[in-house]
Amino acid sequence: MKEHKGIKRSLIERLNSGPVICAEGFLFEIEKRGYMASGEFVPMVSLDHPEALENLHRDFQHAGSDIVEAFTYNGHREKMRVIGKEGLLEPLNRAALKIAKKVATNPIEGTEPNLMAGNINNSNIWKENDSKTHLEVEKMFSEMIGWAVDEGADMLIGETFYYAKEAWKALEVMKKTGLPCVLTVSPMGENIMRDGISVVDTCKELEQLGADVVGLNCFRGPETMMPFLKKIRKAVKCHVGALPVPLRTTKKHPTFFNLPDSHGCKSHDGSHNRSYYAFPLCSLNNAGCWKSCICHGSRG
Predict the structure, then answer these.
(1) Which residues have a Cβ under 8 Å from the Cβ of 227 and sit 6 or more positions away?
(2) pTM (2 d.p.)
């Protein structure tokens, strides 16, 4: 955007003037490139192969992303504890944030500087009626958000929540920083949040709690994400974000976890369906998705 060359507008300033693009999919891209173990999905790449992560950020930047999101997805204390590397938690997070900041502050010549986003996601330990897990999750979120602020994040993204109340807790922690906050949820195949709250009501409450952008991310392709987005757009006044996976999910198979393995794969053990790689969207499908999002007022 040449008219803003050298001027870094805030997230809200950009959204008020048009759509903002945020590239995601780090986990699967890094895995496909051989820098992450399938199953664990912990972003050790920021420490083990920082050049690979920087290159991926630059690929996304070249493709048009306005935001450089730090790859700290699944880089939380619980995941690190599971793989016996809890001592590397802070170094991993800070390394990922520094790499993202480096890329964001070095945009493609003639373009507006990128925004750098700190990131938190679902904890995998949240239990609906267990206050002990709620406190532990809050502590996990707080330390990660603190590191993001230290490393100069311009905004914060909380994503892939399938418990509404965990998403609300994440936003509570994020709002304490004063930075713009994006919260996106990811309902499973039941098409409702795991604590029984509707997707639309979850987003309405997120707006009331102060989220600048609400919406959906991951799990669903355009066909099964768009119906929710239309309802959310009608229900909230804030900006709406959409980050679908580029896969052909359907009403019968609403998330990539539900996609059938009909291609003779014999390695699937039932713990995690890997057949989604056989259901990619073509570029025309993707283009149609974004045109429809813009038509219905989604900006992120």
Answers:
(1) none
(2) 0.89
* CA atoms of 50 and 287, how far apart (whole Å): 31
Residues 6+ apart with CB under 8 A from 277: none
Q: Identify the H or E element spanning 291.
A: helix 283-295
Q: Is residue 258 part of a domain?
A: yes
**Alpha carbon distances (Å) from 21 to 82, 240, 244, 256:** 33, 12, 12, 22
* pLDDT recorded at residue 20: 97
Please classify residue 30 by burial: count the beta carbons closer than 10 Å to its beta carbon, then call 0-12 exposed, 13-18 middle and 19+ buried. buried
Residue 97 included in any domain? yes
Q: Is residue 269 domain-resident? A: yes
Among residues 139, 185, 147, the alpha carbon closest in space to that of 165 is found at: 185
Please state, in angstroms and rounded to a whole number, the distance separating the CA atoms of residues 230 and 217. 14
pLDDT in tens, 213-231: 999 999 999 999 999 999 9
221 touches 281 (CB < 8 A): yes
Any bridge partners for residue 280, and if so which? 247
Into how many domains does the chain fold?
A: 1
Dist. CA 78–CA 138, nearest whole Å = 12
pLDDT digit string, tens, across residues 222-279: 999 999 999 999 999 999 999 999 999 999 999 998 888 665 655 554 444 555 555 5
The CATH number for 190's domain is 3.20.20.330
Residue 300 falls inside a structural domain: no
CA dist 209 and 172 (Å) reads 8
Helical (H) or strand (E) element with 239 = strand 239-243
Predicted pLDDT at 259 = 85
Q: Give residue 185's domain range.
A: 2-295
